[in-house]
Amino acid sequence: MVATASSPPIPPTGWEGGARRQPPRTLSMPLRASRRSISASATGDLPVPAARDPISLPRPLTTADLMEPTGDGLKVAYQGCPGAYSEAAARKAYPSCHTVPCEYFETAFQAVEGCVADRAVLPLENSLGGSIHRNYDLLLRHRLHIVGEVRLAVHHCLLANPGVKIQNLRSAMSHPQALAQCEQTLTKLGIEHREAVDDTAGAAKLIAEQKLQDTGAVASSLAAELYGLNILAENIQDDTDNVTRFMMLAREPIIPRTDKPFKTSIVFSLEEGPGQLFKALAVFALRKINLTKMESRPHKKRPLRVADDNCSAPLKHFDYLFYVDIEASMADPNAQNALGNLKEFATFLRVLGSYPTDVSEA
Known about the structure:
Layout: E1 16-17, E2 75-79, H1 85-93, E3 98-102, H2 105-113, E4 119-126, E5 130-131, H3 133-141, E6 145-153, E7 157-160, E8 171-174, H4 176-181, H5 183-188, E9 193-196, H6 200-210, E10 215-219, H7 221-227, E11 230-234, E12 243-250, E13 262-270, H8 276-285, E14 291-298, E15 304-307, E16 315-318, E17 320-326, H9 333-343, E18 346-356
Parallel strand pairs: 2-3, 2-4, 8-9, 8-10
Antiparallel strand pairs: 1-18, 4-5, 4-12, 6-12, 7-10, 7-11, 13-17, 13-18, 14-17, 15-16
């Protein structure tokens, strides 16, 4: 059954419905964020502060800090240490904000939920490394709303302590994704060994604190300024087209509009059966609504389902959640009708946010 224009309107976000409902060197700093994170970095046109003593920089917020005030003004949480690319994304999204570093992705979610921060800016996907699956899972666990997106170009730099030259380096330290994105360039520079940590800026901080002479960090130029390191090489990523897309999260949704490009993010699950996914995608295709992204993740609360395929033993299959971004605003009746139609046979459906599309330069 296809919903008509007279179908009841669907609330813009937070709506649910359905038929039923992870280092080789000892670290002296709290770098324990998820290894699935992307610590990309670029300062763009952001003002670069003068070099400061790393000890005076704010440490990442931990769960124990969540009841502490963080100062006046709009407070924006991000994962990582000061100088992380996520901080650059937060300042691009909210230029006059007070940034709040957090130890984990989940800590950033909790900071907003507990009113320690007003917003969170966290990575969703990278053009080279793909999706940040941890944050997709956290979107479902927490009741925050996506209120915007921001894209940030990644420009990796090779950093080292003053006096150290490239030929002195035997190892490069950074987030695994950053190391992978610079693999060919590092090899050409004669740097054969890699040391993975959980944050690009954290790698710069560690090298500065321990005064390492044989190890360089792959991080941003902002991290070099903050931790007093020299930039030995710029733009060392193997692919120049390296962009990370971040989501902006808030406790309350924004009111969707139709006078500018909007995107809506949803998550749903389906019954097992032939053509079920085709049927779900058809509700958008028939209304000429474009899908810009689709991501499947195993359903953690229902990871396996038993299927009778006329075999001697029952087969077990993964049960999936589908995360989809559509080019439409929830203020558009066409999008409302599409989700109304999907709700008729989806076992679970939730709108994660309806928000303006980022049309700026990365």
